[in-house]
Write a sequence for this structure.
């Protein structure tokens, strides 16, 4: 049985980029009055109810669920005058080397969380990198490694429903629609690739483009998906939940076909691990999945699988993982199966694995100094002097605090 080992992934977890500074805009405080709505305030302040998005942009605390319920006495932050242009999207997470550039620029620059993206901007992830982009309607796309996306923002149809548009030139992206608004039917994304046009409504979908330009659309959630050829010829194919369709350049979409089964985690799997000296190793295993040619393992810092720390695609002969050099904390791991036609299953449940920090005591009983969080993690085991002890008292107390309801009383 093979074991996949990913060493020194802590560098990716620690390398959280600082937000880009926003351009200075003069703002005022507005106290909400009885009967106020975002549309009403936008009409009074900016002359048109459609500018309610400005209010949302400057008051993220209102949340994604709309319409917002404004209470008398609450205070909003509003720009004194309309900004020149609202961004179509924003980089909300970036791991390793992620770059962006506007359409008029030839040079790429670093894309950090907080970077505003406008129509025509390109975002590019390098090897082992990933990024998350959030649009104005709170739809999100998650870019995997070696992926290039062009942002086109939203367009509102006659039904007043806004459709977000993006172009996937190469690589893979996962679209999460409506997961943060509670209204899955109101979130739509159209993803155009070199060979296909995918219309996604609600739920979660995965769109990939291989080196030959062939596209694959996999419906991983309970939303709706339709796929057509980028040439415009032929009928569109409906792709139901846990189904997929492939489009070769110049050809019509294939009939929808079932995705491979989702792998299941092994029943007896540890969920708490020791981080001796501030860093440690997590590991786990899953049962072999039918029709799997490969597996993709993702380690994230968020319970829903967002904000990737590490990811790896491995052969079907491997059904275990081990990630070393991680700082103490909680991690959420998922695994998906990929068949011999490169269709990927929905990911497994995100298994929570915790690394509990345990101090090291020197032979004299004194604790070792805390590790430098900014230092590059080592890929080789640490040297420990004879007589050094692990102090489990604190770790046991921490674990009990997490596990026992009485501990919080």
């Amino acid at each position: 049985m093979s074991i996949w080992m990913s060493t020194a992934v802590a560098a990716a977890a620690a390398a959280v980029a600082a937000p880009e500074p926003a351009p200075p805009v003069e703002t005022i405080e507005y106290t909400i009055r009885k009967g106020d709505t975002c549309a009403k305030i936008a009409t009074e302040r900016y002359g048109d109810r459609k500018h309610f998005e400005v209010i949302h942009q400057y008051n993220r605390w209102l949340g994604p669920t709309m319409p917002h319920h404004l209470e008398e006495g609450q205070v909003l932050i509003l720009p004194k005058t309309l900004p020149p242009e609202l961004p179509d999207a924003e980089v909300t997470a970036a791991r390793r080397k992620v770059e962006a550039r506007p359409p008029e620029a030839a040079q790429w620059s670093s894309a950090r969380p907080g970077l505003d993206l406008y129509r025509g901007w390109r975002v590019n992830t390098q090897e082992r990198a990933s990024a998350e982009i959030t649009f104005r309607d709170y739809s999100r796309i998650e870019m995997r490694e070696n992926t290039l996306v062009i942002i086109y923002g939203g367009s509102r149809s006659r039904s007043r429903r806004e459709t977000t548009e993006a172009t996937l030139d190469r690589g893979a992206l996962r679209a999460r629609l409506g997961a943060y608004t509670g209204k899955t039917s109101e979130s739509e994304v159209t993803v155009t690739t070199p060979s296909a046009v995918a219309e996604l409504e609600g739920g979660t979908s995965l769109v990939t483009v291989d080196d030959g330009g062939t596209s694959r659309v996999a419906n991983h959630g309970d939303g709706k998906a339709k796929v057509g050829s980028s040439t415009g010829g032929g009928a569109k194919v409906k792709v139901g939940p846990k189904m997929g369709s492939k489009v070769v350049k110049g050809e019509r979409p294939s009939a929808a076909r079932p995705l491979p089964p989702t792998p299941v985690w092994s029943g007896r799997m540890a969920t708490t691990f020791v981080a001796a000296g501030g860093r440690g190793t997590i590991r786990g295993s899953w049962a072999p999945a039918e029709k799997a040619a490969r597996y993709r393992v993702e380690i994230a810092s968020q319970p829903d699988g967002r904000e990737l720390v590490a990811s790896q695609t491995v052969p079907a002969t491997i059904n275990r993982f081990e990630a070393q050099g991680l700082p103490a904390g909680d991690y959420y791991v998922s695994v998906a199966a990929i068949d011999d036609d490169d269709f990927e299953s929905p990911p497994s449940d995100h298994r929570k694995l915790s690394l509990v920090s345990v101090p090291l005591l020197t032979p004299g009983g004194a604790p070792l100094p805390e590790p430098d969080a900014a230092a590059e993690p080592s890929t080789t085991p640490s040297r420990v002097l004879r007589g050094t002890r692990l102090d489990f008292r604190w770790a046991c107390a921490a674990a009990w605090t997490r596990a026992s309801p009485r501990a919080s009383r």
Notes: The first strand starts at residue 2 and ends at 6. The mean pLDDT is 80.
